[in-house]
Amino acid sequence: MRFLATFLFVFLISTSAFAVSGAEFSNDKSGSSLFGDDKQYNNRELIVKFKSTVTSEEKEKLISSLNVKEISSIDQGDISLLTVSKVSDLLPLTKELLTRKEVEFAEPNYNIETAYIPQDPGYTKQWYLPRIGMPAAWDLTKGNSAITVAVVDSGVQMNHPDLKGKITSPINMLTGSPDTLADEHGTHVAGIIAASLNSSGIAGIAPNVKIMPINVFSGDSATVFNIIRGIYYAADHKANIINLSLGGTYYSQSLESAINYARTHGVLLVAAAGNDSSNITTYPAAFPGVIGVSATNSKDEMASFSNFGSYIDIAAPGEMIYSTISGSSYNYMSGTSMAAPVVSGVSALILSKNPFLAPEEVETILKRSAYDLGYAGRDDYFGYGRINASLALENTPEPYSKIKASTRNFKIEGANKLDVSLDIYRGTNIAAYVQNYKGAIIQNLGDSYNWAGGNYSLNWDGRQRDGKYVKTGKYKLVVKITNDKETVYRSIYINVTNSVTPVVKVNKSSTFSPTLESKLTIPYNVNKRSKVTALIYDGRNKKVKQLSSGKLVTSGKQYLYWNGKNGAGKKVKDGKYKLIIYTVDSQKRKSTTKRMDIIVDSIKPSAKATVTTPVFKMDGKSRARMKVEVKESVTINVYILTEKGTRIKKIVSTKSYNPGTHIIKWDGKNSKNKYVTDGKYKYKVEVTDKAGNTKRLFSKNLSLQDWRMPSVEGKSVVEYSALGSTSYTFTLNKPGYVKIELFQDGKRVRTLYTSKWKSSGSHIFKWNGKNSSGELLNGNVFYKITLTDLHKKRAAFTGTIKIELN
Predict the structure, then answer these.
(1) Are 404-498 and 607-706 equal in CATH topology?
(2) Which member of 80, 89, 153, 513 is catalytic?
(3) Can 153 be counted among the known catalytic residues?
(4) What is the pLDDT of residues 598-626, one digit of tens each?
(5) Residue 185 known to be catalytic
(6) Which cofactors does it use (predicted)?
């Protein structure tokens, strides 16, 4: 409880102090407080952060209007580095930008210095390694090349004998070149973290990890802009840890933005506390989310030069630290610059042991494992204590346990499964699969996303992706564990013996017509590689033919073929036969024998079609009927044909019928769902048995009479408005004889059609506006259309023609 209470107190104090600095910065719209005499900065450069809603065009327009030049930018943070032509323009420019709605903040490009004190050699070399428990820590891990520590510092000698082969993605932020320009400070920091264990030179804390050198210094100082570019670069290039052995006393909002960017990308940040022997706040060590490191000496005392304060999280050896320097040499240096990489190196070992830890989890392990110095609990000098590498690694949870398998010698029997389990750290994505001896994945066993942590269990039944059981042999079971940055694999080898009893599956029955098909295709399935025997017997259980005699087949779907002949090559008679099939595997295990009944049938089915309504008076409700008689199970197709044999509709489509008498009905419509006209029609019937033999029948003619009531439709009012003929539309529901008459004042004035045959559907008649005497009429004329069908049924329609002549 003392630890928890102290931690909360420090967190609040640290956050409160930091918020005040930010508030002072944000509220000073004049910008004057940014340019104090005690502050060092580039007097012609300004860092500006634009609001995220500002477009590129708006930004360019604003910069152009202020007569300044953008010399660099960081897209991830909407940050620009501007330069002015005269020193005197910098403060007025800042004041102007702070009033603009597009700008979130503006500040000078402060100079940051390294945090070490050069010392002459003379002390016992690398005294700090046993002090922090490195020998015991190395028994657990010496690091992993998948872990990368970015050294945002001066240049590193990348071909130093103790550093060569462990450099990744180097960059010089001043030039954009991968040549970081070797410097003593950056090389010293890199060696503390990762110098090789190669029986020469020195030993790095995490000798197997990678170093990402990022040079941000020109001489002894670096600008904030180059430092934040280096932080963005490290985060974007998937560094796990960023070491910042540098610092300044000026709060920088742009630097804090870069720190936050790295944290959101899962990067652990470690920074030196500074070497002023005071409690002055030093950045970036004082930012939330950064591990601030003070320095101790060989007596576990606070180093005389080390800063202290509420932002100190942990202490580490920083006095007389022997490490690599440029020129392929070695030397002692002192400073919190040396203490910070000690913490970065131990953090790299923690992540090497468990790469799935979040930055805050690594920080918690460091604090809880620290050797308490000074006042009990956390204090402003040692933070939570001096770093303890061996205890930190002991307190680091394993990312996974060993794979536990129910057996390493898996005997596949068909119903059994191989059970596998292991403990896996939370927040990871898991995929499990089986590989063959060539490394090819043959089966996926499962996956899980954002695993909650704990025991992960799976099983394997011995099958591969296609459902077949694998062959006897050695297989590799792999569990892939990953997060957004790191991936690890756990695997075990399993000796597999395929002891599955062979099983054969075949259909229960089939029907075969030798007159229609040259052979009967018989599909069957076997569950494993085995030898198949298959024979045909007749109804008296006499062997007819052997289709397969111990043929070796692979697992899966296979086929047998029978041409309907016996062993002597003669066609068999129609009747009942049976297929007997079984398999035998390489261990002489025999499957259960399976049987399939086969009916050989080459005779067309017996069927009869009779029209039961030879005269069909179609009225829209009744149905014409035909009787079909069959003596076996069949499928039937029925078509309606005209008297000349033209097909007009299919009324039954491949429908199954049992033996017996069946009634087929027709409503008198064609395939377009229109009623047909009076005339003679007939049925075509196709009857097919199970063997595929088909018999075709044609019925006697059916006399269809359309007894539906006739109807005529037209427009009730139409117009005649121009000299000459005008067309008028009417519709008939059925064919018949049409009569069209014109009336005016109760008298018939003209007959257009006396008795004209018309089909069903839409028609027109034309009228020139005149009566039978050729006189042009005026006013309203009534027209009457009468339809008389073949059965003397009548229907009429009456409408009005309005004559409007100007």
Answers:
(1) yes
(2) 153
(3) yes
(4) 999 999 999 999 999 899 999 999 999 99
(5) yes
(6) Ca(2+)
